[in-house]
Amino acid sequence: MWSCISTAKFLVLVNGVPVGFFSSSKGLRQGDALSPYLFVMGMEVLSVLIRRIVEGGFISGCNIWRGSGSVANISHILFADDIIVFCEAKKEDMTYLSWILCWFEAISGLRINLAKSEVILVGEVEEILEMAVELGCKVDQLPSAYLGLPLGAPNKASSVWDGVEERVRWKLAL
C-alpha cells in the first residue's frame, strides 16, 4: 500500500495550466481521495475479526426478530468512521472485545481512541464499571445520541427530534 502512495506523481493546475509533476513527501492527509477506500479496507479487517469471535461463541450479538418470525443476529454496525458492537453485558465479552481491538491495532497500525468510546447500557447491568475499565472507555445509558441522532428514545415523540431539526434548519440557512 505504501508503495502505491509513495510512488504517485501529482500535477497541479495554475490558472488552468498544468505545471510540472511532483512526488508526495507526506503520505496521505485528511481529505485525500484515497483515504475513504483505505479506511474501508481497514474496517473490513475489524469486521472479520468481530465476526470470527461471534462465530466462535466468544461474544454474542443482538437477536433481531424479523417479520417472518426468523431471527437475525447483529454483532456490529459500521458507519462512516464509527462502529457499534452489540454484545452481552458480561466481563468475559468485554475481555474478548478488548483483545479484538488490541489485535486490530497491532494488525492495522491504526489506534482506537477509547477515550471517545462508550459502553451504552440496555436494561439492568451489574458490574458496569469493571466492564468499562476492561475496555478503557466511558459509560453511558439510553436514551443517548449517536452521530447527533437520538438513540434509544421514543422515536415518535417530536421533542426528541427538535435538536436534529434545529441543526438541519441551521445548515440549510447557510
UniProtKB/TrEMBL annotation:
<protein>
    <recommendedName>
        <fullName>Reverse transcriptase domain-containing protein</fullName>
    </recommendedName>
</protein>
<keyword id="KW-0732">Signal</keyword>
<dbReference type="InterPro" id="IPR043502">
    <property type="entry name" value="DNA/RNA_pol_sf"/>
</dbReference>
<feature type="domain" description="Reverse transcriptase">
    <location>
        <begin position="1"/>
        <end position="151"/>
    </location>
</feature>
<dbReference type="Pfam" id="PF00078">
    <property type="entry name" value="RVT_1"/>
</dbReference>
<dbReference type="InterPro" id="IPR000477">
    <property type="entry name" value="RT_dom"/>
</dbReference>
<dbReference type="InterPro" id="IPR052343">
    <property type="entry name" value="Retrotransposon-Effector_Assoc"/>
</dbReference>
<feature type="signal peptide">
    <location>
        <begin position="1"/>
        <end position="16"/>
    </location>
</feature>
